């Protein structure tokens, strides 16, 4: 390859990276839509054997929207009821908190009256209100941020619908653009990536559903207020490793401390989360996900943190699927490196050095 061709390829690569950086928010929207279409692709393909594809897509997409809407309609009233119970009991919780804080300050040799604590608490709430107001004002003044977010929520299903409708046509187009000499090898890598990504995503969603169900049932049985929203939240964010356990467990412990004022119920919370993690590690993940990614836990944490640093919450959500695909493509790169001269064979290198020590005849 001549120097000018190398420079041209490098310039095109730099231009592509620059465009990806500029269009990151839009590309994230399309990636999320593609993942949604990817999850719904198997039932669409099965139904399309008997019906026109557009009709199969419409039926599957309609069922998906109906299931999501039905779940929301069922859960929102229950969550609203639990929130109302929490608000109704807040004066009692507040009095107990003031008493506990007063005892704590007394133990530290700094007795504080409940009225002082109440004024301090009200002051902090006032500051939080000011921060929220400033944040909302900034959000509104930044243009159409909220409108853009709502537009994205609407656009994701629309784009996913068209992805599903023309999925195989798009795949055929992509296949036609592959270099003919490398096409068989690339097709094998794409097929392996498809298998790994599909098993991981669908299995991980079932694991999230299982964890959310176990958290919600366990916290409800112990009589915890806000058990359902805490359990659902912990299950949803468990897509990001360890986050559901940390955030959901922390919220449940705080709620148990506010509501029950003892050590027994926080221990029950720890038992619920520990039991759910044992079931997830020994049963759900091995059966539903298995070792699909093959990335060390340290690598998983790095991928999630790097995704958050580059693209925020969307980057965190996309980090693990991307890591699953990159793992498939990384293996042949390592294999080729180990078979190359750059890696070498220490034994062969030693023999070559010994043979070359005689010098030219």
Task: Summarize this entry quickly.
The chain has 361 residues and is an all-alpha fold.
Element pattern in H and E: HHHHHHHHHHHH
Estimated share of beta-strand residues: under 5%
Structural class: mainly alpha
**Termini gap:** 36 Å
Question: How many whole angstroms does the radius of gyration measure?
Answer: 28 Å
Oligomer: single chain
Q: What count of domains describes the coordinates?
A: 2
Mean pLDDT: 77
The main sheet comes to: none
What's the total number of strands?
0
Shape: globular
Features:
mainly alpha; 361 residues
Question: Can you lay out the helices and strands and say which pair or pack?
Answer:
Elements: H1 3-22, H2 24-47, H3 53-107, H4 114-141, H5 145-165, H6 167-176, H7 183-221, H8 227-237, H9 243-260, H10 264-289, H11 297-338, H12 346-356
Helix pairs in contact: 2-3, 2-5, 2-11, 7-8, 7-10, 7-11, 8-9, 9-10
If you had to describe this structure to a student in words, what would you say it looks like?
By secondary structure, this protein is mostly helical. It folds into two domains: 24-177, no CATH class; 180-342. Helix content is 84%, strand content 0%. It has twelve helices and no strands. It has helices at 3-22, 24-47, 53-107, 114-141, 145-165, 167-176, 183-221, 227-237, 243-260, 264-289, 297-338, 346-356. Helix 2 crosses helix 3 (53-107) and helix 2 packs across helix 11. It starts with a helix and ends in a 5-residue tail after the last helix. Mean pLDDT is 77; it is low at 139-144 and 356-361.
């Amino acid at each position: 390859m001549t120097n000018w061709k190398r420079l041209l390829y490098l310039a095109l690569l730099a231009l592509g990276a620059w465009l990806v950086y500029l269009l990151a928010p839009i590309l994230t929207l399309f990636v999320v839509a593609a993942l949604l279409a990817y999850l719904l692709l198997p039932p669409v393909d099965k139904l399309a054997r008997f019906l026109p594809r557009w009709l199969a897509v419409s039926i599957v997409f309609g069922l998906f929207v109906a299931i999501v809407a039905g779940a929301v309609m069922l859960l929102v009233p229950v969550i609203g009821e639990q929130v109302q119970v929490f608000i109704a009991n807040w004066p009692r919780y507040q009095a107990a908190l003031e008493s506990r804080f007063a005892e704590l300050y007394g133990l530290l040799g700094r007795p504080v009256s409940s009225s002082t604590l109440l004024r301090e608490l009200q002051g902090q709430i006032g500051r939080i209100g000011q921060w929220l107001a400033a944040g909302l004002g900034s959000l509104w003044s930044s243009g159409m941020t909220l409108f853009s977010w709502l537009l994205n929520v609407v656009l994701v299903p629309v784009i996913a619908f068209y992805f599903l409708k023309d999925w195989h046509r798009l795949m055929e187009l992509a296949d036609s653009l592959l270099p003919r000499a490398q096409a068989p090898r690339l097709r094998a890598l794409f097929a392996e990536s498809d298998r790994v990504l599909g098993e991981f995503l669908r299995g991980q969603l079932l694991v999230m559903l299982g964890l959310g169900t176990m958290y919600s049932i366990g916290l409800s049985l112990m009589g915890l207020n806000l058990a359902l929203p805490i359990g659902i939240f912990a299950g949803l964010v468990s897509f990001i490793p360890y986050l559901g356990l940390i955030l959901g467990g922390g919220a449940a412990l705080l709620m148990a401390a506010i509501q029950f004022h003892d050590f027994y119920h926080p221990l029950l919370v720890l038992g619920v989360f520990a039991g759910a993690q044992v079931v997830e590690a020994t049963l759900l993940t091995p059966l539903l996900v298995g070792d699909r990614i093959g990335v060390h836990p340290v690598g998983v944490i790095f991928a999630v943190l790097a995704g958050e640093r580059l693209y925020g919450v969307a980057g965190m959500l996309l980090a693990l699927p991307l890591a699953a695909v990159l793992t498939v493509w990384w293996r042949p790169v390592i294999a080729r490196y180990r078979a190359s001269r750059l890696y070498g064979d220490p034994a062969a290198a030693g023999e070559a050095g010994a043979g070359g020590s005689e010098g030219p005849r």
